[in-house]
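job 3f2a | input accepted
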Amino acid sequence: MTLSVNLSHRFGDFTLDVAFEAPPGVTVLFGRSGSGKTTVVNAVAGLLRPDHGRIIAGGEVLLDTETRTFLPPHRRRVGYVFQDARLFPHLTVRQNLLYGRWFAHRRGPDNFARVVDMLGIGPLLARRPAALSGGEKSRVALGRAILSEPRLLLMDEPLAALDEARKAEILPYLERLRDELHLPILYVSHSMPEVARLATTLVLIEAGRVAAAGPATELLSDPAAASALGLREAGAILSARLAVPDEDGLSRLDCSAGPLWLPRVAGRAGDSFRLRILAQDVMLATSRPKGISALNILPAVVREVRLGEGPGALVQLEAGDEMLLARITRRSAAALELKPGQQIHAVLKAVSVAQENVGHGRPGADSP
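job 3f2a | predicted structure (368 res):
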């Protein structure tokens, strides 16, 4: 199912004017606070009537201001997960989940057991929300939304209220949700680690406008999009498969660019992973370096050199079937005489890839 959004709405001095297509998978709306992301999601949910626009989900018109079509929220079959879980405090976890099932009017087969297992909330069924951690509440809220049998799932910064430990706990469940349910998801975030681990499609929103939109792997490795993403957060996503872990605590992951060694990665041999490689962690060498401590040396070809207004430069590299970004100084770019088509080596320390930047699944696909 594809979601098509084209809308404009004015709030005082702020005007939202966006248009984009959200194909199957996880489409992340990314941007700074106040850029209009939540307004877009509320319009899709039917919680906001925009001044002008048209929203179509799977061929059905949810909104068309030209024809005065407005499908009310309860008829849109949209699941909404907010920043806070918004569970019913007087109901147990089981009862909260069954409320979502009741709301669906039993349109399809009963998948209660499957959802409970997928989210790992079986041991929580008899508890009330007050006895749950933040991460547990988020998982229950997810389960309730899924059990309402939506054709589209909306998630408005669902991890924003959680600390880093709880985020690390729930991200694998979101990855599993993406890969197993094949449910279109519109996900709002201003966290680049979340984007890198979850997004199949990325929509960058700046000051109420779409700055760029497209497959996440392409945008994250595009030097032109780096300013909208934030230079410190700039980096590309690589797809890799886990090999047998080494005895010294390192894991080898095989990708088309070559083997990568990272601190131990949990999983089974053959599992697919998405690796976020920060541009600031990539060094460049015109010949293969020797006698260095860095374990990861990938042959690559320079595709683009983009000089910044300050002392920095971004270099886009093609390594096998993968795209990488390197953030270096303009002086280094000049000293290496970098130019498109040049053969080069990308150097990456094993310990530079944090665990939060290693996620399950393949980039650009909503299923493994």
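job 3f2a | The radius of gyration is 22 Å.
job 3f2a | closed
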